[in-house]
Amino acid sequence: MESLDANFPVRHRKVTLESKGNKTEIVICSYEDHILVIATQIGAMGTILHARKEEGMSVEPTFSVSVIFGKRDEPMLIATARRLIEHISSIVPSKPLVLSLGLRDHSSETLKEIVATVIENRLW
Fold it and tell me: Which Pfam families does UniProt cross-reference here (predicted)?
């Protein structure tokens, strides 16, 4: 189920997916200066991460991911943010990502489904 609300002042999209018996609600917002993605199975924000492409002279792009709030010992959450910022920066290099993950299930399979759903419904 997907909706796009033209009346809301920020371009956004809402998507719901079912993963391993958990209903996951995803909201993707495209602000002028950043992308916000909220994915929740618990009706709350959960862990909030900030990811951006580092500007530099290096041929290979470098990415920075940090936990702003929440679980700092979950490498899969950091990997999820990194996968998304790598994709976003290949299209809009200067937009950082704020990612909120409020999940019951932190399995690799669920996180891959969330990444795929966000990319499929992207607003960048």
Answer: PAC3
Measured distance between the N- and C-terminal CA atoms of the chain, rounded to whole angstroms: 20
114 is written with which tokens?
């969330």
Which of 93, 111, 105, 97 has the alpha carbon at shortest distance from 29? Answer: 97
Does this model's pTM top 0.85? My answer is yes
Contact, 13 vs 3, CB < 8 A? Answer: yes
49 close to 81: Cβ distance less than 8 angstroms: yes
97 Cβ partners below 8 Å, 6+ apart? Answer: 34, 35, 36, 37, 49, 50, 51, 52, 81, 84, 85, 88
Task: Count Cβ atoms below 10 Å from residue 114 Cβ, excluding itself.
Answer: 24
Start-end of H helices in the chain: 75-91, 108-120
Beta 2-3 vs 47-54: how paired, if at all? Answer: unpaired
| pLDDT tens by residue, 53-71 | 998 777 788 999 999 999 8
Cα 41 off chain centre by: 14
